[in-house]
Amino acid sequence: MAKDNYTVVTNFILFGLTDHQEMCPLLFSVFFIIYIITLSGNIGMIVLIWIDPQLHTPMYFFLSNLSFLDACYSTTITPNMLANILEGSQPISYTACMAQYCFFVVFATTEFFLLAAMAYDRYVAIRNPLLYTAVMTKRLCIALVAGSYLGGFANSLIHTSGLLRLSFCGSNVINHFFCDFTPLLKLSCSDVYLNEMLIFTFGSLIQMGTLLIIIISYVFIIVAVLRIRSAEGRYKAFSTCASHLTAVAIYHGTILFMYFRPHSSYSLDTDKMVSVFYTVIIPMLNPLIYSLRNKDVKYAFKKVIGGKVFSQ
User: Fold this and answer.
1) In degrees rounded to 5, what are phi and psi of residue 93?
2) Phi, psi at residue 177, to the nearest 5°?
3) % residues pLDDT > 70 (the chain)
4) Cα separation of 195 and 298, whole Å?
5) Cα angle: 60, vertex 112, 258; to 5 degrees
6) Cα–Cα distance measured from residue 49 to residue 170, given in angstroms and rounded to the nearest whole number
7) How much is the CA Rg of the chain, to the nearest whole Å?
8) What does pTM read for this prediction?
9) Among candidates 256, 299, 297, which has minimal Cα distance to 277?
10) Which strands, in side-by-side order, build the sheet including 173-174?
11) Better-predicted residue by pLDDT, 50 or 231
């Protein structure tokens, strides 16, 4: 059939996670609980950092921004996914689909840059603990966070603009639970080579660039830790990095597997499972990682609730 005979798509249908209706009540319950935990954990972390003066340090300033990102990141995807599970395949307008993709890329990219900034913060704290607050000034912290958001918006603008130039015709069913890049390209009747090159080039530069910053920071951290004479001092210094390292490993590892594995291993079902992990599960895990492994956060929480939680 000639391309001109196709009907131009003005809205899409999100296929969702599964077409097995018998699983939907269970899936809805699980993801609804996860979403409530995500919002409670991340908003709770922001409020806790805001009200406790002892947490008014550069490290927790970055952590509060990470919690804000995770809450926004999850909210961009999860409510629509829950509606899809509850009511079946849902229509989404062309504009709403592009907007969802735009904000998804903003928050996902900003998190890459923010995790790199947090690695630098840990390096300064361990390398020069006495000069930590002098080096990590409020102005520098704000600049690093603002730069992270600027990088996120710039990357999103590039890829969203690339999608907006495409024509969508024929099938309008997106075989996914949100408007992601690859499923959208599959529906386009335009040449998508430029889009694929842009996502590969900028995706590689951002992921590898931020990962390189993190690796270099931790090489210097390890060197600094090894210079500490006491075993207790080395353990205390490196334990402050454990939560950040865990968050980095989970986030970067998932994205690397999702977008940089061989094309021969691509599967829509696998992509959906991995997408659920980094769009729904990881935003829930981050506040748990940073609270369960952090004595300062647990102590601040204990003070707020009157010492009834985390008491021995």
Assistant:
1) -65, 160
2) -105, 0
3) 92
4) 45
5) 135
6) 50
7) 22
8) 0.90
9) 256
10) 90-93, 11-14, 173-174
11) 50
> How far is the C-alpha of 280 from the C-alpha of 30, rounded, in Å?
11
**What digits encode the pLDDT tens for the residues 148-159?**
999 999 999 999
Number of residues assigned to the chain: 312
User: Tokens in use for 68?
Assistant: 């804000």
CB-CB contact of 145 with 117 (8 Å): yes
DSSP string, 174-236: ESSSS--HHHHHHHB-S--HHHHHHHHHHHHHHHHHHHHHHHHHHHHHHHHHHT-SSHHHHHH
The count of other CB atoms within 10 Å of the CB of residue 207 is 17
CB neighbours of 254 closer than 8 A, spacing ≥ 6?
274, 277, 278, 282
Residues in contact with 306: Cβ distance below 8 Å, sequence separation at least 6, in sequence order: none
Give rounded-to-5 percent helix, strand, coil for the chain.
80, 5, 20
pLDDT > 90 in the chain, percent: 54
